[in-house]
Amino acid sequence: MFIPTASCTILIEGPLIVTNSSLYLFWLLIKLPRLTHAKGGSLIKPNLINFKFLPVASSIVMKSSRFLEYIYIDYYSSTPKYIQLANSIIKSVREGKLIINETLPSINELNCNFEISRDTAEKAYKHLKSIGLLGSVPGKGYYIKNTEAGQQFKVFLIFNKLSTHKKLVYDAIVDGLGHEAAIDFYIYNNDFEFFKKLLQNNSNDYTHYVILPHFMHGGENVHDIINTLPKEKLIILDKLVPGIKGDFAAVYENFEKDIFQALEEALPQLRKYHTLKIIFPEYTYFPGEILKGFFSFCIQYAFTYKVVHDIQGEPIHEGDVFINLMENDLVVLIERILATELKIGKDVGVISYNETPLKKIILNGLTTISTDFEQMGKMTAEIIKNGSTGRYEVPFYLTLRASL
User: Fold this and answer.
1) Considering the chain, what is the average pLDDT of its residues?
2) pTM greater than 0.85 (yes/no)
3) Separation between Cα atoms, residue 318 and residue 312, nearest integer Å
4) What are the Cα distances from residue 34, in Å, to 8, 26, 28, 40?
5) Which of the following CATH numbers is that of domain 255-372: 3.40.1080.10, 3.40.50.2300, 2.40.128.50, 3.40.50.300?
6) What parts of the sequence cross the membrane (predicted)?
7) In whole angstroms, what is the distance from residue 152 CA to residue 385 CA?
8) DSSP 8-state symbol, 211
């Protein structure tokens, strides 16, 4: 690093951009009079630093400054930053803040001002170019090519977590809406307080709120939070919430009915076993309606049954069928069965919740009972595009494989 030892002039050309790096530089320069520098074996204090700002074209400064006001990156959001950047530009075009033929800041300027990578900035511009909003001229950069290419919908999408099957829902929504929608995606990790914070801090300019409400604890009054949203914009996913008022849309599972009917369909295979055990952790976001359906089936068809809270210490006997909900429990269960002389699909049965590609392969195939998550996403996209406020049950399937 160069440290001046006498009078020194620092030339700063162009608009001053305040970033973490530039703040550090100014701190260092302010502190320089107190620093010392070894020269010829002696310590010499710098005397003076002169700052000289060279003038630049005011239109360039105005353009960059004005553009900065339109861009918003939400670091709580799970939406990729390039999509957030692209959505901010689309919103500015839609509101008339950016006009046709207006030149946008360079990739380097975006990289510097928003602390995002060059790849992220370039990906955002290429995305906007692919939908016809931007044009580009080699050596000149990007500009607004078409002010009619904006999105019709702006969606606030919030999930409790992003598992393999939830990703199917997300992908189907994104694919179904295509370039017609800007989607802000959030994950609250089953935490009610975080969910409430995200919902209360939203910008209120969304055309739709798509909410998947599952909580470990504290969600008893979630309806109070959701009731603050306009019902014509509301879509509830996966689970209906008691207490929500008004005419809103929903794409949901009927948990009690679904497990009952799936087990009923598997009755011919279940007849060779005598005890059904459902692995249902005490601390879980899975709804209690699943247990109601399970109990109803076992009582109606005279099976011995048990709710297992911890599979690690549960005895495994010939004639048992295990129904698991959590992927971690499935791993423990299979490891424990394989450590015995019991044969899966003959002596012991295994049924797993939620279909995934891997379950087609494990142990020559695991029997699954599962919602059609891709269909859930497709139905949600159609509701958004059609403006429907209907409530639709998602199909639920039994897929028989070697584990039963």
Assistant:
1) 82
2) no
3) 17
4) 15, 14, 10, 19
5) 3.40.50.2300
6) none
7) 9
8) E
